[in-house]
Amino acid sequence: MRKKEKMRLERGVREKSTVKYFAIIFLLLLLVMGMVLPQGARSLVIHVMIFCILAMGYDISLGFTNQCSLGHSVFFGIGAYGAVLSILHLHIGFLPSLFFSLLGGFILGTLTGFISVRLSEAYFVIVTAIFFGVFHLLAMDMTWLTGGDDGLSVNLQTLSVGGISISLYDQRVNYYFVLVFLILSYLALDRIIRSPMGKIFVSIRENEKRVQFLGYNVYRYKLIAFIVSGVFSALSGGLYGLTLRYGSADFFSFHWSIMPVVWCLIGGLGTLAGPWIGVVIMSLFQYYVSAWWTYYLILFGIIILLILRISRKGILGYVLSRRLS
Amino acid sequence: MPEIVSTVLFLFINGLIWGLIVALIALGLTLIFGVMGIVNMAHGDIYMAGAVLSFYVVGMFGNFWLSLILVPVIVILFAAPLERLVLRPYEGYHSTSMIATVGISFIIQQIALGIYGGIPKKISNPWPMSFNFLGVDYPGYRFLVAFISILILAGLWLFLYRTSYGILVRASMQDREMASAMGIDVNKILITTFVLGCVLAAVGGVLAAPIYQVFYLMGHDVILLSFIVVIIGGLGSLKGTLIAALALCSIEGVMASFLSPVQAKAAIFIIMIVVLMRRPRGLFAE
């Protein structure tokens, strides 16, 4: 009994360090790749990095507190519009505009969280899906604000720090700009997960009732996790808007709600860096297969069904459980 | 009769008839959730499939009424294996089942896009009669739709509350494990329920096809509305779903007289939030 528990603890520590090594290697690889990649591939990798932030943010919600939300496109869209609209109307630089993305994500996360987090599982998924539906409709309808389907284009100002001017129009600068945010988000989220609060998140996932009996306010911690998840999704949306220098009602579409789920399921729930694998696989899949077959969403549907059937822990979780058992 | 009153009344009745169609769809949704524990995201696409199939039946045989019989048969042939072979492992896991049915929804949508095409088409009105109702010419087909929907709802009620098989379905809805322990063949009940829910949605699609345009994304609006209906009425509550569908759609219809359609949707959404704040499990949940 004692021995078994010790083995499990050791295994948990080893799993965690494996994930950490993977994350460090992945980030170093990205650091080098920015120098050597040709233009087209670099733009793909920029998108991958932005989606990695979204996937990590979503993992906090689904992987750590077991809240399966289908409404994260709302945060992604509000993040993109927070950046685009603040640049357009307040004429500020791109760095302060990201603040408005985060603010938008925080406010919306708090509001939607207040309503949805205390609901039971089935109600939670449905209500978050309704959030997505209504916000998408509103974004399509309020063309005076959002530009609807056609969207809004913006011009970015140049940021000068200590004599060096930074312009996102240079793709290489854009690459490292996004990479810095990916590293910062990873460090921040890793810190949150390792804090006592993160431990409570995990215990809510493992056994919600028990945490409640231990005297923790489950509702409050779930709400915090939901808001954190929303804020990082909004950051990802803001970076996406800045990279494309464009915001459209399409950023509220269902694509941005279902993709994070798929990324996390493929890569590995509750591992923070695991979903990155999912992002890479799905981005390559979409990039190549959508060019080859118009109805590739059929394959996408089949992939969703297969992943759910094979393993809910994702590729990283599957490899870890194989290697260590 | 002042004009504003007759306009509002017209919109109210329009909303009520739409509410009857939505009730068919949402009842299917709540039945599937109640018995199987599946949140069916593909329900709107089955509604779309019903409309698209009826478009083909009309094109092939030139008779709209035939599609009311043929489409359910086709849907049964597809839905029964779908439940048994694809959906069975996800039953009871609410969020997993919802994501799985998103996958199915993509597949149905893309197949419809591939075969039917992305352009909205219209089915000609099968019963071009109109009644003069309070000074407004009202299309007779819509009253017929209301009549057929009420017949189907009555049939569903008779099936669930007046037949022995209906009692078995309701027993599995209340406690599936207990029902299975009492010797009820739950396997059969699961297939029946899923097929019944899908047929209800498809019939809703057939009835709506001549009123609205047939389009491969037409399920999106309907799934959103039926989810709101089911949440307000209470998941798994048949009575609540029926009442919520009729009430919400007639409210939406009346509000459409002074708001844009999207604003009316947003108003419905706000009603849902207020209900959820007061009653987190819907109005009629047991």
What's this, in brief?
The complex is a heterodimer of chains A (325) and B (286). Chain A has helices at residues 2-36, 39-65, 72-90, 94-116, 121-141, 143-146, 171-194, 196-206, 208-213, 218-244, 255-267, 274-292, 296-310, 314-324, and strands at 152-153, 159-161, 164-166, 246-247. By secondary structure, chain A is mainly alpha-helical.
Question: Can you walk through the features of this model?
Answer:
The complex is a heterodimer of chains A (325) and B (286). Chain A has 325 residues and is mainly alpha-helical. Chain A has one domain: Orthogonal Bundle (ABC transporter involved in vitamin B12 uptake, BtuC). Helix content of chain A is 78%, strand content 3%. Chain A has 14 helices and 4 strands. In chain A, the strands form 2 sheets. Chain A has a two-stranded antiparallel sheet. A two-stranded antiparallel ribbon of chain A has the order 2-3. In chain A, helix 1 runs antiparallel to helix 7. Chain A is globular. The relative contact order of chain A is 0.18. In chain B, strands 1-2 form a two-stranded antiparallel ribbon. Chain B contains 11 helices and 2 strands, in the order ααααββααααααα. Chain B starts with a helix and ends in an 8-residue tail after the last helix. In chain B, 75% of the residues lie in helices and 3% in strands. With 286 residues, chain B is an all-alpha fold. In chain B, a hairpin with a 2-residue loop joins strand 1 and strand 2. Chain B is globular, with a radius of gyration of 19 Å. Chain B has one domain. Chains A and B meet through helix 5, helix 11 and helix 13 of A and helix 4, helix 9 and helix 11 of B.
List the helices and strands and how they pair.
The complex is a heterodimer of chains A (325) and B (286).
Chain A (H helix, E strand, L loop, with lengths): L1 H35 L2 H27 L6 H19 L3 H23 L4 H21 L1 H4 L5 E2 L5 E3 L2 E3 L4 H24 L1 H11 L1 H6 L4 H27 L1 E2 L7 H13 L6 H19 L3 H15 L3 H11 L1
Antiparallel strand pairs in A: 1-4, 2-3
Helix pairs in contact in A: 1-7, 2-7, 2-10, 2-11, 2-12, 3-4, 3-10, 3-11, 4-10, 7-8, 8-10, 11-12, 11-14, 12-14
Chain B lengths: L2 H34 L6 H19 L2 H24 L6 H23 L13 E4 L2 E4 H23 L1 H11 L1 H6 L4 H23 L10 H15 L4 H18 L5 H18 L8
Antiparallel strand pairs in B: 1-2
Helix pairs in contact in B: 1-5, 1-6, 1-8, 1-9, 1-10, 2-3, 2-4, 2-8, 2-9, 3-8, 5-6, 9-10, 9-11, 10-11
